């Protein structure tokens, strides 16, 4: 997939949103940002995603993260679309800004272009992409789905929890990890270092290779 990817810096674009004009790096300050694209306004799958995301801001805020949506329609259409989303998902309010990109320039710079999906005029549409942006305005994780598949917001939250653990401790999270599960100590950490860094202790799995890995602990 061409364009910006993991550990690349997101360009400091000035964008028009439903909350007014913003510069991306200003918006990214002091925390994490989940920036996600959807194909177009008034499409059903995208409406379900926007509605589900509208239910999650408190969970993201607890983790120091903000949401930023993006579509190729203009601000006026976005605002009209929000009414549909909030009606479709009763009790949810779209409190996060939605970026307008009618010229399809921002989706190119953020690597959110669907190479196959086009509108009735033949213009490219955004892919169903999501970047988690962390320190240094860098992309720490990306998801890419086809237009036919809506995202799982619980997985986005789980992935953010994993990134937060990894950024605070020298650990990684194993397959199907959940926030209360054990984590894996980085292989670069020696046993002696692990004893100092993780005084709560750790467990070493004995494997046929004879190597002393992985180390599991809780943080």
UniProtKB/TrEMBL annotation:
It is an enzyme of class 1 (oxidoreductase). It holds the Pfam family AhpC-TSA. Its EC number is 1.11.1.24. GO terms for biological process: cell redox homeostasis. Keywords: Antioxidant, Oxidoreductase, Peroxidase, Redox-active center. PANTHER family: MCG48959-RELATED (PTHR43503), PEROXIREDOXIN-6 (PTHR43503:SF4). This is Peroxiredoxin. It comes from Durio zibethinus (Durian). The gene is LOC111279845.
């Amino acid at each position: 997939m061409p364009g910006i990817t993991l550990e690349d810096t997101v360009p400091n674009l000035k964008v028009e949103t439903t909350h007014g004009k913003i510069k991306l790096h200003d918006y990214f300050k002091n925390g994490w940002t989940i920036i996600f694209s959807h194909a177009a306004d008034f499409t059903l799958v995208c409406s379900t995603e926007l509605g589900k995301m509208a239910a999650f801001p408190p969970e993201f805020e607890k983790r120091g993260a903000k949401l930023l949506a993006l579509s190729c329609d203009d601000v006026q259409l976005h605002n009209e679309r929000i009414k549909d989303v909030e009606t479709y998902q009763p009790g949810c309010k779209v409190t996060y800004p939605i970026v307008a990109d009618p010229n399809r320039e921002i989706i190119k710079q953020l690597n959110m272009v669907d190479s196959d999906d086009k509108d009735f005029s033949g213009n490219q549409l955004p892919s169903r992409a999501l970047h988690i942006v962390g320190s240094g305005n860098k992309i720490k994780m990306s998801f890419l789905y086809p237009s036919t598949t809506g995202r799982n917001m619980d997985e986005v939250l789980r992935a953010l929890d994993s990134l937060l653990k990894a950024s605070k401790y020298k650990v990684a999270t194993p397959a199907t990890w959940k926030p209360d599960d054990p984590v894996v100590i980085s292989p670069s950490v020696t046993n002696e270092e692990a004893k100092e860094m993780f005084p709560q202790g750790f467990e070493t799995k004995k494997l046929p290779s004879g190597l002393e890995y992985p180390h599991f602990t809780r943080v």
